[in-house]
Amino acid sequence: MPPRYLSFRCSVPWLILLLEALFLTRAFLSIQDAGNIDVPAHFYPLFRDVNHIVIFGFGFFLMVRRRYGFSSAGFNFLLTVLGVQCSMLVEDALVFLRVQHSEVGMRSLAKAVLSMTAVVISTGAVLGKANPVQLIVMTLVELILFYLSRCINRRFLQVPDSLTLRHVHLFGAYFGLAAASRFPRAPPGLDKNRSTPTSDLFSVLGAVFAWVFWPSFNSILTVSRADAVLNTYFALAVSAVTAFLLSALTSRDGKFRMTHIHSAVLAGGVTVSYTAATIQHPWIAMVLGLLGSVTAIFGSHCSQRCFNTALKLQDTSGAHFTFGLPAVLGAVAAVILSVAEEGIATQWSDLPSLGSLIFLSVAAFCQTISTALVTGLITGFILNTKLLKSAHVSKYYDDQFYWEFPHLSVGF
């Protein structure tokens, strides 16, 4: 092994130790006594479901490469537990700067876990190429930038705080795509850059696991939780059915394809995330679920055959068409539905107010995706500097570069 790769033993543990010292200092100085924090009885089950999605659901969802299962699940867990603590540290910094109000307890923790979803989605785009140091640095940078993007939307574009978190899919997908574009491309014939029936099974199980708990993801910070759960479930159900339907119709032999199920069953939940709590008629959520699944499946065909080659996109786990494109569809649908609701309420008499609503909603969407793309590109350049020592392309998608395999040792 080249000497420059032996630095992981020195860099990763000390980087983690430094971060934990910082987080412990933050906890010692700022967090309230747990006994003084009032936690509603209904809130913890929702938080537990969201935690399951991020840890178990995405951990298995990312296991799409045949020799990268240890790293997919292990690094996802490491980044999540570090990122949640970093999120709360960033929130404290924003409170200190008087950018937002102080919030403690389970609600603050839930926002931190939801914010980590952006990093997990971005990790799916660079999966197998970034080493642990690069992933940790990307986590810290992306969380700070995501919070800054939320602050811009909240303070200048009048987006409600809970709705700014719904841009997490959009920001994560396009930040990851932009960062991944700066990594060297893997050789076309690299054998490790493919899936197996076992890896496909685990990744689909992760998607199904996240599917089960996704209504909690969309409802945890909303007021109308019952509406959010109902609309999310209907959107997810139609999305899953449409995934099977389109998979059989688009495959050459009329059989189902695991890659379609993997990418499309969550698309309905992502699409309806902006409007789950405000939709009054479940059929609207069902239509959005159908359109989300169609977008994911046909988006995967277009991305792999057209956009990835032309734009030099690299996307290991399909973050673009699983989260990015459905999130774009959901943001557009949110603008249309909010304008229709406001127009009906005012009988289309207050056109300046409607114009202002459209402008602010579109501006928030454009600001989020532009910030994600620009900062993702800059972060990708930083991650590929000599200081962070990117792995050679021959080491892509290989667990043995980072994990111990006793059964492969000499003498066994």
TrEMBL record:
InterPro entries named in the record: Ammonium/urea_transptr (IPR029020), NH4_transpt_AmtB-like_dom (IPR024041), RhesusRHD (IPR002229)
Keywords (A to Z) from UniProt: Membrane, Transmembrane, Transmembrane helix
Main location per the UniProt record: membrane
Presence of keyword Membrane: yes
GO biological process: ammonium homeostasis
Gene Ontology terms for molecular function: ammonium channel activity
Record GO cellular component, one term: plasma membrane
Membrane-topology descriptor: Multi-pass membrane protein
Transmembrane feature ranges: 12-29, 50-68, 74-97, 133-149, 201-217, 229-249, 261-277, 283-300, 321-340, 360-383
Secretion signal span: none
Subcellular location: Membrane
Domain Ammonium transporter AmtB-like: start-end pairs: 38-385
UniProt family annotation: Belongs to the ammonium transporter (TC 2.A.49) family. Rh subfamily.
Name of the protein in question: RHD protein
Source organism (scientific name): Pomatostomus ruficeps
